[in-house]
Design a protein that fits this description.
- This protein is mainly alpha-helical.
- The chain folds into three domains: 90 residues; 126 residues, no CATH class; 61 residues, Herpes Virus-1, CATH 3.30.40.
- A hairpin with a 6-residue loop joins strand 3 and strand 4.
- The longest helix is centred in the N-terminal third of the chain and has 51 residues.
- The radius of gyration is 32 Å and the shape is extended.
Length: 374
C-alpha cells in the first residue's frame, strides 16, 4: 500500500507541474501574439515575427511533450505496481481455512443495495439469491431514503413529520434535529428571496426552541439584515451546504436508531475495516506463511487496531490474563468490586474453593462472582 501511495503522489505531482507549465506556455504565446498584433509591421517583418512565434510555440510544445512522457511513465509504473501487488495482497491477507456462509454475504449485499436506494436491483438480487426480506424491514428503509432525498431538495416537511411521529423514541424528543430542519427551511426561504414568508415561518416555529437555541435564533434573524450581501457578512456560514449535509447525517442516525439498525450498511463497515486491517494482515502472512496459527480459532494471531470509528461497544481487557473478554469468557464482578475475566477467576482457587483477589486482601468463591455486561 505504501508503494501505491508513493507512486500515486509522484503521478499527481508530475501532472500538476505539467498543467501549470502548459497553462503558462499558453498565456505566454497569447501575450506575444497580442503584442505583435498591436504593432504595425511591414509584410517582411510580419513574416519574421510569425516565424519567431512559431519557433517559440515549437519549443514550448517540445517541453510539454517531454513532461507528458514523464507523466505517462509514472502512470505506467503505478499501473504495474498495482498489478504486481494486488493479487499478492488479496491472497496473503486471506485464510483459506475460513469460509463465510454465502447467504450472509448475499444478505449483506442486499442490505447495502437497499441502503443506497437501489431497491429494484436489491429486490432482484434478493430474489435470485433466495434471500427473504419482510416488508417491515424494506419499507422503513425506503421511507428513510425518500426523506433523505427530500432533504437534499430542501423539501423538509416529510422529515419534520417523521420526527414528530417518533419523538418519544428520540433523545430529548428530537428537539435538536427538529430545530435544524426548521433552520434549513427558514434559510431556504431567504435563498428564494421570500423574506416575508421567512419571517412568518420564524415567528411560527422558532419560539418553541428559544430556551435551548436562543443564540442560534438570534443569528438567523440578524442574517435577514445582510441578505443582499450575505457572502461578505458575518452570517455567510449559515448558507453553507455543509448544514444540509450535517442535517442529513443526523437524521439518518436518528432514523437508524429508531429502526434498530446500524447507521452504515454492514457491507460498507466490513469492507472499510478490511482496508484498514490489510497492512497488518499482510505482515502477519509473512510471519506465518503457512497460516497454521490461524486454523481452529475465531481470533487472528495478531492485534489489529481499527480505530474508534469501528468500536460499537465497550471492550474489557482482563488485568490478569491481558486478554479481551468474549461471550465464552465474560467479565466477572468480584464481591470486592474488582473485575476479572471468567477464565482467570477459575484458575485462582488452589486447595479450597476460596481464593484471594489479586488486587486486594478480600477472599471469595467463584460462585460469588457475577457476570456483568457493558
Amino acid at each position: 500500500m505504501e508503494t501505491w501511495s508513493n507512486e500515486f503522489d509522484r503521478v499527481r505531482s508530475k501532472s500538476q507541474n505539467m498543467y501549470e507549465h502548459l497553462s503558462s506556455a499558453i498565456e505566454e504565446l497569447q501575450s506575444y501574439y497580442q503584442l505583435q498584433d498591436s504593432v504595425h509591421f511591414e509584410p517582411q517583418q510580419r513574416k519574421q515575427q510569425l516565424q519567431q512565434l512559431k519557433r517559440i510555440a515549437e519549443a514550448k510544445q517540445k517541453e510539454c511533450n517531454a513532461e507528458q512522457k514523464e507523466v505517462y511513465g509514472s502512470l505506467s509504473k503505478l499501473s504495474k505496481s498495482v498489478d504486481k501487488t494486488a493479487q499478492q495482497l488479496l491472497e496473503g491477507a486471506c485464510c483459506p481455512c475460513t469460509k463465510l456462509p454465502s447467504h450472509w454475504v448475499n444478505q449483506a449485499i442486499c442490505q447495502h443495495l437497499f441502503r443506497k436506494g437501489l431497491f429494484t436491483v436489491g429486490e432482484q438480487f434478493a430474489d435470485e439469491s433466495g434471500i427473504l426480506f419482510q416488508d417491515d424491514f424494506t419499507e422503513p428503509i425506503k421511507e428513510l431514503y425518500d426523506i433523505v432525498s427530500a432533504i437534499d431538495e430542501y423539501r423538509l416537511e416529510p422529515a419534520i413529520s417523521w420526527i414528530m411521529k417518533h419523538a418519544v423514541h428520540l433523545t430529548k424528543g428530537g428537539d435538536s434535529l427538529l430545530f435544524r430542519l426548521h433552520e434549513l427551511q427558514y434559510l431556504q426561504l431567504l435563498r428564494e428571496s421570500k423574506n416575508r414568508e421567512a419571517m412568518d415561518y420564524a415567528n411560527k416555529h422558532f419560539p418553541a426552541f428559544a430556551e435551548s437555541y436562543l443564540s442560534e435564533i438570534q443569528r438567523l434573524c440578524c442574517s435577514l439584515l445582510f441578505i443582499d450581501r450575505i457572502e461578505t457578512s458575518p452570517y455567510a456560514d449559515l448558507f453553507s451546504s455543509n448544514l444540509k449535509l450535517e442535517t442529513q447525517v443526523e437524521f439518518t442516525k436518528a432514523c437508524c436508531k429508531v429502526l434498530g439498525i446500524a447507521q452504515e450498511s454492514p457491507l460498507y463497515l466490513v469492507t472499510s475495516a478490511g482496508i484498514v486491517a490489510l497492512p497488518v494482515l499482510l505482515k502477519a502472512a509473512r510471519i506465518f506463511p503457512n497460516k497454521t496459527e490461524w486454523k481452529g480459532t475465531d481470533q487472528l494471531p495478531v492485534e489489529v487496531e481499527l480505530g474508534k470509528a469501528f468500536q460499537f461497544h465497550s471492550i474489557f481487557t482482563c488485568p490478569v490474563s491481558r486478554e479481551q473478554s468474549t461471550w465464552d469468557n465474560p467479565p466477572m464482578l468480584l464481591p470486592c468490586g474488582h473485575v476479572l475475566c471468567q477464565a482467570s477467576i477459575q484458575k485462582l482457587p488452589r486447595v479450597t474453593s476460596r481464593f484471594k483477589c489479586p488486587y486486594c486482601p478480600s477472599e471469595q468463591t467463584v460462585s460469588q462472582c457475577r457476570a456483568i455486561n457493558f
